[in-house]
Write a structure and sequence with these properties.
By secondary structure, the protein is α/β, with parallel strands linked by helices. It has helices at 16-20, 33-38, 52-64, 69-82, 84-93, 95-102, 106-112, 114-117, 134-142, 170-180, 199-202, 217-234, 250-257, 266-286, 302-319, 323-327, 350-354, 377-384, 401-410, 430-436, 471-480, 488-500, 519-537, 549-555, and strands at residues 9-12, 124-127, 149-153, 187-193, 239-242, 263-265, 295-298, 330-334, 337-338, 388-391, 415-418, 442-445, 452-453, 459-460, 463-464, 564-567. The protein has four domains: 9-105, Hemocyanin, N-terminal domain (Up-down Bundle); 120-261, 3-Layer(aba) Sandwich (Rossmann fold); 269-465, Rossmann fold; 469-555, no CATH class. It is built from 24 helices and 16 strands. Pfam families: malic, Malic_M.
Length: 574
Amino acid sequence: MVPKVENPEFRVALRGGALLGSPRFNKGTAFTVEERKAFGLTGRLPSRVNTLDEQCARAWDQLMTRETPIRKNSFLQSLKDQNWVLYYSLISKNLRELVPIIYTPTEAEAISNYSHLFRRSEGLYLTFCDQDTMEEDFLEQTKGRAIDLVVCSDAEAILGIGDQGVGISAAKSAIYTLIGHIDPIKSLPVTLDVGTDNEDLLNDNLYVGWPHRRVRGEEYDQFIDKFVQLVRKYFPHSLLHFEDFGVTNAQRLLARYRDQHACFNDDIQGTGAVTLSCIMAAVGVTKSKLCDQRFIIYGAGSAGLGIAHQLRDAIVSTDNLSPAEAAKRFYLIDKHGLIKESLGSSLIRDSLYENGFVRPDEEWEGAKTNESGEVGLLEVVKRTKPTVLIGCSTHAGAFTEEVVKAMAEGCDRPIILPLSNPSKLVEVDPADANKWTEGKALIATGSPFPPTKMPNGKDYIIAECNNALIYPGLGFGAMICQSRRMTDDMIIAGARRLASLSPALEDPDNALLPDFGDAPGINFEVAVAVAEQAIEEGSAGVDWKKEDVRERAKERKWQPIYGEYVYDPEGEQA
């Protein structure tokens, strides 16, 4: 039986139109008769008092009249601007259908048209040319608020569509609330506008961002550091989430700040953590170990390198190998082919050298190469006989029939994870991967795909290796225990908890990860595991025992329900 949730009481200073215009406090037609009288709303609303369920039914009917995903996205954004509780309640009741509308893949289209769809500002915009007033602007936006989460982006590498200049990180914050139980008033989405190199935007008269070439180098670093120090100064126990930073900055910034503050980069650590969970589940099906696997990662950008780091660190932690020994199990491929020593430092990032992911040339003597001397994917598959093939390249169709069949010849149950988003950029359609391996492959994708048929006629459910299955829980766990850092062991603990909930562990032909519709409950379990690990390792800023974490976490969950309002001129206004 689900316990009854008590409606919170709020002392509110807003009245009349100001109250109806506050998305945090507005209830629309759900204001009670008593509240309408107390807050001067009687003549501003029609007579009937609706329940939240009735409002959701009406909003759903209105949403269904919008025929395209982008129009549905626009409607939901408008609803969010009016009424937070109704917005989050509606989506919570329809997670499978609506998260793809407010997040991947539709949000990519919304952001690419951000300037033309712009209606109302949301969050905090910090622009390079206005950095002299950064602290003043920061404090004005956060006045009277206890911020637990800061989601920031410089919009250089958004959702597979690249440099978009300016586009608020609100969608990511919304997922934290929907699935991770974060109170939206304690979340701050931030745009760090350092310009754009996108010619279409620079030539667009309606572009709402700073129409300037993207700032780089020392000036960029100083701007970012000024922002980070404000977060550290005023909200020392918050989680700082880096989102959609370009490949030249993402890993570098995370490395610079992760020992100073609780920092998280979803493109690196979130993608790595959910992929780790997926592979842990697959390893459970094959009854092997992480250290037994041979990994090919096709696409060595932020996501691919983040996955490699996460898997390597988990092998070190779980199987007690040295980092150097664990790194020998990885073969990374980018647009220049296999990453090996002869590519030279001009084409290989320092982090690849530092982490041992650059293959020695002597391994590849006699290897078949293309006209440019590159060792391609098929040759790497044939020579290494991988057990795990991961795609994060946005190179549609890269896992060809020949590649997949060559992999299947080398292992009994190949683990194939084409993770690129959106679905049109996937490295292989899971139906094809299933067919070409005669149903042997263990498959997960980055975007939703329908089930595919096994040779025995049974449906094989394609797991969605979606970061949202884990990053909200990782964040919520770090926030509730006020962790000073987001450590590798905290992330691995969360990934291990998610993997333990895999349906495939009960039935090897079932999905590798839980259904996305169960994401809120799954992320709560992840959060508990993360907070328990933080307490065990001494990273937590609270004086709790591990056995207290679950109840403490329940107490801190935000849920989309209407509170009871008492008018108080000294009450809340934000």
